[in-house]
Design brief:
The protein is α/β, with parallel strands linked by helices and about 170 residues long. It has 2 domains: about 5-90, Arc Repressor Mutant, subunit A (Orthogonal Bundle), CATH 1.10.10; about 95-170, Periplasmic binding protein-like II (D-Maltodextrin-Binding Protein, domain 2, 3-Layer(aba) Sandwich), CATH 3.40.190. About 50% of the residues lie in helices and about 15% in strands. It has a 3-stranded parallel sheet with strand order 4-3-5. Strands 1-2 form a two-stranded antiparallel ribbon. Helix 2 (about 10-20) packs across helix 3 (about 25-30) and helix 2 crosses helix 4 (about 35-50). The protein starts with a helix and ends in a 23-residue tail after the last strand.
Length: about 170
């Protein structure tokens, strides 16, 4: 048997909240660009799933029932959480912002440069800035997000990761 939250449709909940907020089916339908009968079917489906009457309807008005008021509060919370989850989900899909890389000239020319067009096509929201230098730099002073150095790191206070092979995949 399916759980209740799996049966409820987000669109039906949104329609119910909209009808209450807009003061009726006709106004809500106008604002959403759908027919009043479509909204009516959404509320009817929701009432059938919950086995309660949410709205008392007449030709001139609607009145929310006590059960409808309880469902309304929960529906608002569900819709708010759904929006927040959607924002999180979409924000994770498209990285954006500045990325400052500091790397040796030969590494940039022979390893990074051949992949820059593909990187830009895959991540158009990233503003990539590459500083090419063969000398160790003050990462904080140079505002680098990433520094690439080849060979052994001498006595240094820098945190580092020793890598034998670097695989670039975009």
């Amino acid at each position: 048997m399916q759980k209740l939250h799996e049966l409820l449709r987000m669109g039906d909940l949104a329609a119910f909240v909209g009808i209450v907020d807009d003061g009726g089916f006709a106004e809500s339908a106008r604002r959403r660009g759908v027919s009043a009968s479509t909204l009516s079917r959404s509320v009817t489906r929701l009432e059938e799933q919950l086995k309660v009457t949410l709205l008392r309807r007449t030709t001139r008005s609607i009145e929310i029932t006590p059960e409808g008021a309880a469902v309304l509060a929960e529906a608002r919370e569900i819709l708010d959480r759904s929006e927040a989850l959607q924002e999180i989900a979409t924000s994770g899909q498209a990285p954006a912002g500045p990325l400052r890389v500091n790397a040796p000239v030969p590494y940039v020319l022979h390893v990074l440069a051949p992949h820059l067009a593909e990187f830009h096509a895959t991540y158009p929201g990233i503003q990539l800035s590459i500083d090419m230098t063969d000398t160790l730099v003050d990462l904080i002073g140079s505002h680098a997000d990433v520094a690439i150095r080849l060979g052994r790191l001498g006595d240094s206070q820098m945190l580092h990761r020793d890598c034998q092979v670097v695989v670039l995949g975009f």
